[in-house]
């Protein structure tokens, strides 16, 4: 992705392109989407697309990572003691929303959490988790942040590939308990 990150017009253009890609991928696979059709759907020029993204995969990774970032932001919006018995609505909304774009996530995530989206998610989630742990003075911020990022990315990838059974509600609850366990694990 290139282009000025803070420019309001660039932000709006990238948002249009991400939305157009998600809409297109709800109808067909990423491999069937063309840049020409995508820019028509987004209402931008082809050259504008290439100002912001090197190719469709870069846009797809950005669009999917944006969805995950929104969910992570919502999860970190609360403070206090998490209730392991009930996952936050943001996590359920995230897993429910993936259903309409599971094919896109499968194209970008390989089982176990690899692939272009897996690398991006791991990096973003690790940085966010580490910052949160450091903010509250929790022990082992690097170790736990790596574990949280790896667990979430790996479970998400395996779930969209059908390797972890369960519907959105079930997986949200199970992932929530896993994340709480990782954060609460006493470390020397």
Descriptive terms for the model:
188 residues, mainly alpha, 70% helix
What this model shows, in words?
There is one protein chain. This protein is mainly α. Helix content is 70%, strand content 0%. The protein has nine helices and no strands. The protein has helices at 8-27, 35-42, 46-52, 56-76, 89-98, 102-108, 115-136, 141-160, 168-184. α5 (89-98) packs across α9. The longest helix is centred in the last third of the chain and has 22 residues, at 115-136.
The helicity comes to over 70%
Broad shape: globular
Order of SSEs: HHHHHHHHH
For the largest beta-sheet, the strand count, sense and barrel status come to: none
Count the E strands.
Answer: 0
Based on helices, strands and strand pairing, what is the structural class? mainly alpha
From the N-terminal CA to the C-terminal CA, the straight-line distance is 41 Å
Mean pLDDT: 88
- Number of helices, where a helix is a run of at least 4 consecutive DSSP H or I residues: 9
Strand-residue proportion: under 5%
Residue windows where pLDDT falls under 50 for at least 5 positions: none
Nearest-angstrom radius of gyration? Answer: 17 Å
Helices and strands in order:
Blueprint: H1 8-27, H2 35-42, H3 46-52, H4 56-76, H5 89-98, H6 102-108, H7 115-136, H8 141-160, H9 168-184
Helix pairs in contact: 1-2, 1-4, 4-5, 4-7, 5-9, 7-8, 8-9
């Amino acid at each position: 992705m290139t282009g000025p990150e803070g420019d309001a017009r660039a932000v709006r253009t990238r948002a249009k392109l991400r939305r157009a890609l998600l809409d297109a991928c709800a109808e067909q696979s990423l491999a069937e989407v063309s840049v020409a059709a995508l820019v028509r759907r987004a209402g931008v020029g082809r050259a504008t697309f290439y100002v912001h993204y090197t190719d469709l995969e870069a846009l797809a990774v950005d669009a999917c990572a944006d969805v995950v970032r929104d969910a992570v932001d919502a999860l970190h919006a609360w403070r206090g003691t998490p209730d392991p018995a009930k996952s936050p609505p943001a996590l359920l909304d995230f897993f429910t929303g993936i259903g309409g774009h599971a094919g896109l996530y499968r194209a970008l995530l390989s089982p176990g959490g690899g692939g272009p989206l897996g690398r991006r998610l791991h990096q973003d989630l690790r940085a966010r988790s580490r910052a949160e742990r450091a903010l509250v003075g929790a022990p082992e911020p690097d170790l736990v942040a790596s574990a949280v990022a790896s667990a979430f990315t790996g479970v998400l990838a395996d779930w969209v590939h059908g390797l972890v059974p369960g519907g959105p509600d079930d997986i949200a609850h199970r992932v929530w308990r896993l994340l709480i366990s990782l954060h609460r694990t006493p470390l020397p």
